[in-house]
Design brief:
This protein is of the alpha+beta class. The protein folds into 3 domains: 82 residues; 61 residues, SH3 type barrels; 110 residues, Roll (Pdz3 Domain). The chain contains 5 helices and 15 strands. The strands form 3 sheets. Strands 8, 9, 10, 11, 12, 13, 14 and 15 form an 8-stranded mixed β-sheet that branches. Strand 12 and strand 13 form a beta hairpin. About 2% of the residues have low confidence.
Length: 309
């Protein structure tokens, strides 16, 4: 049985109300559906954009990784090329042997303490001695390595290498590294020296004087002093020695190697700067048998050694 809606039964007002309500419901449904569709579209668009961004980032990352890998391969290739070139050059040098034969490295001894080399002793030579009853005895010693001479007394340090402990007429004793050593005066040359007028030369600036000839000359001192003249020599306003001139031929001064212009500075370490003291020293040295004279000749300092026998 079909029911029909009799519109005529509704009034105009009721009909309007009915149509209005139905319209509103339909409109609301359409609005809801449209909102859902728009939301879905927005979600799809958002997911699409995110996917595009992810794919783009992945592509860039892969591109960078490929570039880095290519650079790494290029670096390795260059390194390998350089290494191969160096190896070829090295092999060429080794083949030609331009630096001589290759020898294996020396093996150092194991479990052995290092050897301590002892300090070499300074070579010393006794040049002369002066013996006195008081504390004025001294010795003239030379450092043969440095060719330096100096005067030393008992307990003096000898060139920082030894200590002088005793002085004798023909030798001295020194203590070095806890041991006593003896320095003898230089031996006379072998064979008899040839004397001329009581004086013989035994080498460069070394003379042997006959004791009898020396005593004969000293007995007549005024006559000896006339055979040469000596005047004080000043340097920078200070007396430094005696200048010799007017040396006569055949005189004792000439025989012992002196020349005009020589400046006598010291005898056995005693200064000759003062003429009066020089004369007193001359008398004192009469008993000496070894004399060392230091003089200046042509602006060069020289040493003369004399032995009286």
């Amino acid at each position: 049985m079909t029911q029909t809606l009799d519109i005529s039964a509704f009034s105009t007002t009721s009909l309007k109300r009915y149509l209005k309500k139905e319209y509103l419901e339909r409109t609301a449904q359409i609005t809801v559906v449209s909102a859902v569709i728009l939301s879905l579209i927005l979600v799809v668009l958002t997911v699409s954009e995110l996917l595009k961004a992810y794919l783009k980032t992945t592509a860039q990352t892969k591109k960078i990784a490929n570039e880095l890998a290519a650079m790494s391969d290029l670096t390795k290739l260059r390194s390998r090329s350089s290494s191969d070139k160096f190896s070829k050059n090295y092999m060429l040098i080794a083949k030609r042997n331009i630096f001589g034969p290759l020898t294996p490295p020396m093996k150092s001894p194991t479990n052995q303490p290092p050897r301590i080399q002892p300090k070499p002793a300074t070579p010393l030579t006794l040049i002369g001695t002066y013996i006195s009853g008081d504390q004025d005895s001294y010795a003239i010693i030379q450092d043969d390595k440095k060719k330096a001479q100096d005067i030393f007394r008992i307990n003096d340090s000898v060139f920082g290498d030894a200590t002088l402990t005793a002085i004798f007429s023909d030798r001295v004793e020194i203590k070095r590294n806890g041991k006593t050593e003896v320095l003898m005066l230089d031996d006379l040359p072998t064979g008899q020296p040839e004397f001329r007028d009581g004086v013989a030369s035994s080498g460069d600036n070394n003379f042997i004087i006959d004791e009898g000839e020396l005593n004969k000359s000293l007995e007549n001192l005024p006559l000896l002093l006339t055979q040469a003249r000596a005047v004080p020599y000043f340097k920078e306003g200070r007396a430094v020695g005696l200048r010799m001139f007017a040396i006569k031929n055949g005189s004792l001064f000439q025989k012992i190697g002196l020349k005009n212009g020589d400046i006598l500075k010291s005898v056995n370490g005693n200064s000759l700067a003062d003429f009066t003291q020089a004369m007193q020293l001359f008398e004192k040295l009469k008993q000496e048998r070894r004399l060392t004279l230091v003089l200046e000749r042509n602006r060069k300092e020289m040493q003369f050694n004399y032995i009286v026998e």
